[in-house]
Design a protein that fits this description.
Order of helices and strands: EHHEHEHEHEEHEHEHEEEHEH
Number of helices: 10
Distance between the termini: 48 Å
Largest sheet: 7 strands, parallel
Number of strands: 12
Strand content: 15-25%
Strand order of the largest sheet: 8-7-6-11-9-12-10
Shape: elongated
């Protein structure tokens, strides 16, 4: 079995770039996954694992072999692992995986889909939280409009606790996504302050896209002008907005309630 003990190894240096640089992830079409559960979920989600690296003091060779399948297996030193590991809590295992094509055309939707759309989300933690909620509700797809960062950012992989791999995900421009939804006759419900009605008054049992924007600026006019109905979550306190992942969760589970969970 191959062993790497030096952080100066060229392959290790390339993996550090995958952690730190979106450009490196896009150029190579690969990204890093950390943790047993996350690697397992990526495999179940159809991601191809190229290489598995493990620290034998933490992750045993036998357990790692079971997880790695046909991927190349590399034993690494503690120094190398600490250079690559992203999380504070450690499991002693990382994997290099091939990224997927996240274009809208790759989505496989049923006859009555329920979709979450987030326009220009900025914080990886919010994206991760929305992906976790989408997984919990078994949404048909999550679409990111005008993404600010690539979805294989290690902060998103980490904050989604593997739900990046359990959801159908696509990205596109606002214009592309609106055209996609209209082509498929999917109703568009935009969470916004302008010209809105209470979210609980609408029927989400037909093909539905729930659209949320950033807390700072909300949704762009293009979404508001093309919505089936603009919706709002009634606020009874001093502020007029809430965390986008919380708002998305409220809308998602109202739709799931109407659909009988």
């Amino acid at each position: 079995m191959k062993q790497i003990t030096s952080v100066q190894n060229p392959f290790i240096k390339s993996l550090v770039l995958l952690q730190e640089k979106s450009k490196a992830r896009k150029q190579t079409g690969t990204f890093l996954i950390e943790g047993h559960r996350e690697i397992e979920l990526a495999q179940k989600g159809g991601y191809e694992i190229e290489t598995v690296l493990f620290l034998p003091e933490i992750s045993s060779e036998n357990d790692t072999k079971k997880l790695s399948g046909s991927a190349e297996l590399i034993e690494i030193s503690k120094e190398v692992y600490q250079k690559l590991a992203y999380r504070d809590t450690t499991e002693g295992i990382l994997a290099v995986a091939k990224s997927k094509n996240l274009s809208l055309s790759e989505l496989n939707l049923g006859k009555n889909p329920l979709i979450l759309i987030a326009e220009s989300p900025e914080k990886p933690g919010n994206i991760g939280a929305m992906l976790r909620t989408a997984d919990a509700a078994k949404m048909d797809a999550v679409i990111i409009a005008n993404p600010k960062s690539d979805l294989y950012n290690p902060n998103i992989v980490r904050s989604s606790v593997g739900c990046l791999f359990t959801n159908q995900i696509a990205t596109g421009t606002t214009e592309e996504i609106i055209a996609f939804l209209k082509e498929k006759n999917i109703n568009i419900y935009c969470a916004t302050l302008q010209d809105s009605t209470g979210y609980h008054t609408q029927d989400y049992t037909t093909p539905t896209a729930l659209v949320v924007g950033t807390e700072a600026t909300g949704l762009t006019k293009e979404w508001r002008d093309n919505s089936t109905q603009n919706i709002i979550i009634p606020m009874q306190g001093a502020i007029d907005s809430m965390n986008v992942s919380v708002a998305a969760a409220i809308l998602i589970f109202e739709a799931k309630r109407q659909r009988g969970f």
